[in-house]
Amino acid sequence: MQTLSQISQSFGNYITKQTFEKEPIALYEPITYILSLGGKRIRPILSVAAYQLFADRVEEVYPVAFTVELFHNFTLMHDDIMDDAPLRRGKATVHTKYNVNTGILSGDAMLILAYEYLTSVSADIKTVTKLIKVFNKVALEVCEGQQFDINFEKINKVTISEYLRMIELKTAVLLAAALEMGAIVANASESDTENIYEFGRNIGIAFQLQDDILDTYGDSATFGKKVGGDIAQNKKTYLYLKSLELLSETDAQQLFDCYNTSDIAEKEKIEKVKTLFDKAQIRSHAETLQQEYYEKAMSHLNAIPVAEELKQPLYQIASELMIRKV
Amino acid sequence: MQTLSQISQSFGNYITKQTFEKEPIALYEPITYILSLGGKRIRPILSVAAYQLFADRVEEVYPVAFTVELFHNFTLMHDDIMDDAPLRRGKATVHTKYNVNTGILSGDAMLILAYEYLTSVSADIKTVTKLIKVFNKVALEVCEGQQFDINFEKINKVTISEYLRMIELKTAVLLAAALEMGAIVANASESDTENIYEFGRNIGIAFQLQDDILDTYGDSATFGKKVGGDIAQNKKTYLYLKSLELLSETDAQQLFDCYNTSDIAEKEKIEKVKTLFDKAQIRSHAETLQQEYYEKAMSHLNAIPVAEELKQPLYQIASELMIRKV
Q: Rounded to an integer, what distance in angstroms lies between the CA atom of residue A75 and that of residue A69?
């Protein structure tokens, strides 16, 4: 059995061996570039860690794990265009370093490559069919999540449950599917596969809530993205929606106005919104909700009847996700 | 056996039954919209017609034929953004009717849906594996073709063979793969599958040359795109590259200058380039080359040992492609 750092290292070695040095360079180079930005490779590591609960030839799951990483980076490439984001992990985004057309097209190629890896897995037909079905479903759901996210920027009224469903689609289901696909490659039982999926879905929502918290309260030196970006873009996060509920009518109106007038400078707007967030003690509220999802996630992991030792890497990822600063 | 118009009608019925009326509407509506713009559905019809050469349960091939149509429309949606094209078949392009982000995201969803249909085909594992392999390959090739097309706009020196390779990737291989996949679903032999692919590849290059000719010499009332668009965008088509070869040094220099200076109004530029094209008698040269590819295509179709009657729909499509006005 591999520890988390062993998984990370072995899979890291595997990734560096996957090269995309083909013509036309302008199409493939941005793929190498975005993959080189690194990050913690949380999703593929989840696939490997989930696989390890039920089987022990970890190399078997690598193509599927890499499918998830390619897909995730494809969504980053396209989302960064849509969000007009200049930075990703402290480096220029693809469409900033190259141009928008490159970002669109290289992203498309990454999505196709994701399917190429997925269908290169050595497994029986039943397993491959299951994997494709799960991947098709999650890929569409992630697009749906991104669309809801875009929609929410334009409408005034978003409920907290609509918001939670959006982050579930945009973020959580991919973590869940990464785990599920790892379990499928390992021929896990249906109930184990369901539990590992639910572990991922709940930890994913907790993770996104953490991301929302960091976007406002993170340290700009380590966060890798612009702090206050969500506020600047009028993103109706849990922090915003719940503050509207918690604040007095006057304060809530002020918060609403900050998001709905353009005659306030960005820096001033971020400061003003933060003050109102603090007044609502929103950080603590968000952290409480995050904790609830975290505990639900853990209960699903606990329900899987395998040796505790095998679950260590998953416990560790889950806890790191909850205390991460970047 | 179905005639071409029967294929077109039956498959048309199948398409109208495929609905994408799901939430979020902003994601799925543009898919319905672009599919509703119609067109001749050449690619899926090719899949069905190729299938019919070797088997006769046409419904069997529909999901694969629709995969190709979805993929083709996905590329249109994204290419129209990259080319900043306002019109598609005389109607507003998706990013014009909606916005660029919608065009990116709905396009992504279409690519995923294409895989969903592809993997929903009822066939044995060997067949499904072959189909996925062909589709992965062609999907990447089409991206490569689009990237070469973009590259060629920015560099001065493009050879005719580089241009022909680009249109092969961007256009011809998808027609070829549409046919190949139809043959695969019908369990055709390897040599028949190869011949049908080569028929498509050659007819595809002829088709793209026709498109280039129409872009300059088409009738704006029926062409559905802006006539002269290639010239306005400095597209180094066969017409341009071959004219440079054929014209006198002075005229060639003038043509080169038209493509490389920005201080000439678009309308004037199109007129001037057309005059130089005419001087090189480029239309006739392009039509001769087109005819060569057409004949090569036919020789591959002839090499397939099935009843002539079964090939009628393919002969008909091929000849319609060569005389089409839109």
A: 10
The DSSP call for residue A88 is: E
Contact criterion met (CB < 8 Å) for B133 and A119? yes
Nearest residue on chain A to B110, alpha-carbon basis: A140
Cα separation, A13 vs A4, in Å, equals 14
Which residues of chain A make contact with B78, given a CB cutoff of 8 A?
Answer: 104-105, 108
DSSP string for residues in A93-146: -HHHHS-HHHHHHHHHHHHHHHHHHHTT----HHHHHHHHHHHHHHHHHHHHHH
Cα distance from A243 to chain B (closest Cα, Å)? 26
Report the alpha-carbon distance of residue B91 to residue B324 in Å, rounded.
19
Kindly state the average pLDDT of the residues B244-267: 92
* Angle subtended at Cα A139 by Cα A197 and Cα A230, rounded to the nearest 5 degrees: 90
Structure tokens at A84: 């007009």
Low-confidence stretches of chain A (pLDDT < 50) are 326
Nearest to A256 by CA among A161, A162, A155, A148: A155
pTM over 0.90: yes
Question: B210, B322 in Cβ contact below 8 A?
Answer: yes
What are the φ/ψ torsions at residue B324 (nearest 5 degrees)?
Answer: -60, 150
Q: Which residues of A touch B133 (CB under 8 A)?
A: 119
Q: Long-range CB contacts (< 8 A, 24+ apart) of A156-160?
A: A156/A260, A158/A236, A158/A241, A159/A241, A160/A238, A160/A241, A160/A242, A160/A245
Which pLDDT score, from 0 to 100, does residue B70 have? 98
- pLDDT range class, residue B127, cuts 50, 70, 90: very high
Query: What mean pLDDT is predicted for residues B245-268?
Result: 92
| Residues 93 through 122 of chain A touching chain B, CB cutoff 8 Å | 101, 104-105, 107-109, 111-113, 115-116, 119
Instruction: Give the tens place of pLDDT for each residue, B139-179.
Output: 999 999 999 998 998 888 899 999 999 999 999 999 999 99
- B133 touches A at CB < 8 Å: yes
- For the stretch A234-263, pLDDT in tens is 889 999 999 999 999 999 999 999 988 878
Distance from CA of B53 to the nearest CA of A (A): 28
Kindly compute the dihedral angle of the four CA atoms of residues A35, A40, A46, A52, in this order, to the nearest 10 degrees.
100
Q: Which of B95, B65, B83, B86 is nearest to B153 (CA)?
A: B83
> Helix (H, G, I), strand (E, B), or coil: what is residue A92?
strand
B148 has a chain A CB within 8 A of its CB = yes
Asked if B125 is an interface residue toward chain A (Cβ–Cβ < 8 A), one would say yes
> Helical H runs in B87-169?
94-97, 100-118, 125-154, 160-167
- Summarised one tens digit per residue, pLDDT across range A38-49 is 888 999 999 999
Is the pLDDT at B326 greater than 50? The verdict is no
Question: Any chain A CB within 8 A of the CB of B140?
Answer: yes
| Cβ(B293)–Cβ(B202) below 8 Å | yes
Q: In this structure, which amino acid lies at residue B216?
A: T
The CA distance from A92 to A110, in Å, is: 18
User: Distance between CA B268 and CA B280 in Å, rounded?
Assistant: 19
Q: What is the DSSP letter of A41?
A: -
Looking at residue B119, the DSSP 8-state letter turns out to be T
The answer to whether the complex's ipTM is over 0.90 is: yes
Tell me the helices (H) and strands (E) count for chain B, helix number first.
17, 2
Question: Residue A66 belongs to what H/E stretch?
Answer: helix A62-82
How far is it, in rounded angstroms, from Cα B201 to Cα B158?
21
